[in-house]
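cron nightly-structures :: item 1 of 1
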Amino acid sequence: MKIIFNKLKPSLGKRLTIVIYQLVLLSLSTSAVAQVTELEDIEDSVIKIYTTQAAPDYFTPWRLLTPRQSSGSGAVIEGNQILTNAHVIANASYVQAQKHNDPQRYQARVTFVSHEADLAIITIDEPGFFSDLKALSIGDLPDPLQEVSVYGYPIGGKTLSITKGILSRVEQQIYAHAGAYLLAGQIDAAINPGNSGGPVIVNQEIVGVVMQANAGGRAENLGYFVPPSIIRHVLTDSTDGVNDGFPDLGFRTQTLDSPAAKAAYGLKKNQDGVLVIKVFEDSPAADTFKENDVILRIDEYDIAEDGTIKLSKDLLTDYKHAIDMHHIGEDISVTYSRSGIEDTITLEAEKALENYSLVKGDQFDQTPRYFIYGGVLFVPLNMNLLKRWGSDWRRAAPVGLLQMRNEWSSPERSEVVVALQVLAADVNLGYHDWRNWVVESINGRQVKNFDDFSNRLKNNTQENVVFENRNGYQMVINHLDAEKSESSILEQYRIPSSHSVNLFTD
């Protein structure tokens, strides 16, 4: 209906204009108030987290590094839980949480950690802490180029920071915290220390958890977040309090970009896939796959020649993601080709083996293992030790230790033992400058792992122990002298024990 004001009495037309104007203002005001309320709800649900972290010193594994204070961010989710990054609370001896615009800090308790996904859940037992906080729900992955908001408490200030950016891409990334290869989103918003664990928000829902900034300083204002699919996987995993993690079928592959290679392994012109180059014993794939098989499909996802699968019209990622999204005990359908013959099998998703490489990944919230024998400090090689050489560890760490990362684990040898340093004493004269070398065998027998190595030393009955590396260099320690000198060496170097408390558990 059209209202023609000039045909009405002037006073009536004026009154109608005022009424319509007031209704418009009321509508705009109501909308503005709703937006402010929604913004305040999100702000109140973003928590600042304070931690005191004391990581072990893997150069002197009986000691802790100097404790340091750090902070991060988190978001309230259902069940009176706060979702944050695992690296925010890793190796933490004390955790506190602080609400928005509240000066008080509350002691927090860690209830679940997935170091692999760099996610953790904490809670606060203080009565009433969550009563005035709205739990944020987990939303869906934004579309490419969609604007997102990043909430958190970056260093340099005490108040909440909100930055905006766009989702630039989604693909598999190495998670810096524990080295896992999982799906991640990239945004062009500033990510600074203290932002870690903060939510990425779209339409009042969590669509990601900030985890790391771009490494190496090669690009500005680029950050990465844990996407909703990984968050939901971890939240489901957390319901029983046991971290099962992401499954692994126990094979490794390489891409098949080469037409000659495709033909050599029996693929038709319209077939693509990835070549199996390693099958691990005691894995789901051990009795099914062989080297040189070609994996064509995981569940409903066809694998391209570059190893990617298509999750949506605009999203390609590594085929590993199709396996990652399963939980332990679920069935995974795998289609493969062997010498040109195609077959489909069903494998049960199992927990990943402890390590597929001879060098174990990063360990957190654990006491390092070590054994001092004859004044020689022996340790297992892991990423914690390699990273002890500093941020440039890929260049600074000994080449011989770095090379071990490229060797597969096997039942015959599942761990590397390193003679890290020699505590100078009469029992080890001639070897005082030996350090950082890999022990291949003891008295002619190959070393299987660190437990095997330590038990053989503890139970040795031979007069001398001969340690040998792969190049044939030998270190000889008299067993009786090693036993007699143990207490004096420990006292001289102020070491509390000759071995870590968790080494000999039997």
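cron nightly-structures :: done
The CA atoms of residues 276 and 292 lie 5 Å apart.
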